[in-house]
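Here is one chain, start to finish.
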Amino acid sequence: AENAVQIGNEQECAQLFGLFETIFTERFDQFNTFLPTFCEFALTAINSPEISPTIKASIHQIIDEAPRAIPEYFAEAEIYEKYLMASLRLSFEICASDRENVDYQFTNTFLSLLASNMEDIDGFYASMLQIIQSLIESQDLSMIQVSLFSLTSIVEYCTDPILEDPDFIVRLALQGLSSP
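Its structure:
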């Protein structure tokens, strides 16, 4: 895996990390004890400036199903916030390169499974809003686009907190509409 990433072979990385995802989430539950280590590898790689965004998105496949497979690993805000931030930053990086391309939406599975497996959904939603707020301060239209998409990924599981305070989403949408 490390060799494929170092060489920068995008096709090989996509296949390889897709196989990792399959092993951990569809085939062999006994390997789930190793999944946190692979998630940490993925987080490190996703945060690495030396790796291309396309390869990072392939690596992200490792964590896509992880919230369902090992929900206890993502139970603490300190852990899931690091993954949220890394995923949203990568999604933004991909969107910023071509806003017309929907490749930035690779986070959908991860975000929806993370939200669906949260015991403290209010805390999760508050963390999500805080992260989004910190990322959109730049007023970048790509980040607003990613933020709105990310919120649609979790809306099914965060209905109550959204209905308690819909103003954030309204402000976010208005900010996007008023941007040049």
